[in-house]
Amino acid sequence: MSPDDRVYAYSAVLMGSPILLKLLEHNQPVAAGVFRLIKQQENLLTVNRPDSEVMAINHAAGEHPVVVSQPVFELIARAREISLLEGSCFNFTIGPLVKCWKIGFHGNRVPPAAEIARLLTLTDPRQVILDRQARSVFLPVKGMEIDLGAIAKGDIADRVRDFLRQQQITDALINLGGNVQTLGGMPGSANWGIGLKKPFAGPDDLIGVIGISGKSVVTSGIYERYFELAGQRYHHILNPETGFPLDNELLSVTVISPQSIDGDIFTTLLYGMGVEKGLACLATTPEIEAVFVTKQRQVICSSQRQFNFTLLDSSYQLGR
Ligand code: ADP
Ligand code: MG
Ligand code: MG
């Protein structure tokens, strides 16, 4: 490798995920700035520590509205809008169920049906009251909890991209534990190659590689965070209708889009739709493209205007 082909990687663990920044030139101040930005955003949005703005809203449920910062208000407004779409399986008030399953955390368990039924009554996104003038959020029933886990990393990845641009960086990759956003390409290439992970295999085991430039790649899969009990697998994307993990033909969905927040939102939405409905939906959203991986070991790509896909693992087949 010649010096010009070098990639400088910076890593940290934040938001409970490994974070990786790649630059083509060594730039410690920019890397430090990126990690500071991520930390700031995590401090506003996390539900895994008691002192975030989102937790202030959750603690005040059934009591009073909470005034939040503009970016947090906008993110919650977006999450509410997506949750209220016709047939949406995205639900930003899923918090009580996420907390009770504890999937991916210590103490995970299958909650009794009566408990799930009770918690489902606390997850109606229509009940959340947003006041744009006051910039306040109110959860009217005690026990309601906002969870932005399906959208926050996308938003943060876009903020990192914007920050890198401000710093005149032309080629970079940020990976927030599965949410990738990019500028430019790798050394000697117009693109970055993003590995599509092989489900339930080693971290370096790939089904294929997605080539992109200046786009985001977000993957959600049932193999990321899950636990097994009595031969049954329980993963971390919940069906807001039943309170149980979403169950269909999919192992993972990967979304390619200009904005990582859209990728984050759409991985969850498409997960709920499955392949058939998902492809029909994608035909109406030109900026959102996707790669579905099914339990039948099929890899199904939507239109490919923003990316190219190279299959590496012959035990998987390109479908449709
Ligand atoms: P990750 O990138 O951590 O895998 P995803 O973007 O796939 O996360 O979103 C999963 C997270 O979103 C869960 O860990 C939980 O916090 C939250 N969540 C689970 N089910 C839903 C749902 N139906 N709608 C919105 N958020 C959800
Ligand atoms: Mg998501
Ligand atoms: Mg995600």
UniProtKB/TrEMBL annotation:
Binding of Mg(2+), residues: A150, D264, T268
* Cofactors: Mg(2+); Mn(2+)
Q: Which domain of life is it from?
A: Bacteria
Magnesium as UniProt keyword = yes
One term of GO molecular function: metal ion binding
Q: Which family does it belong to?
A: Belongs to the ApbE family.
Report the InterPro entries cross-referenced here: ApbE (IPR024932), ApbE-like_sf (IPR003374)
The annotation note on the cofactor reads:
Magnesium. Can also use manganese.
Kindly state which keywords UniProt assigns to this record, in alphabetical order: FAD, Flavoprotein, Magnesium, Metal-binding, Transferase
One Pfam match, given by its short name, reads ApbE
By what name is this protein known?
Answer: FAD:protein FMN transferase
* EC numbers: 2.7.1.180
Residues making up the signal peptide according to the UniProt record: none
Q: Which reaction does it catalyse?
A: L-threonyl-[protein] + FAD = FMN-L-threonyl-[protein] + AMP + H(+)
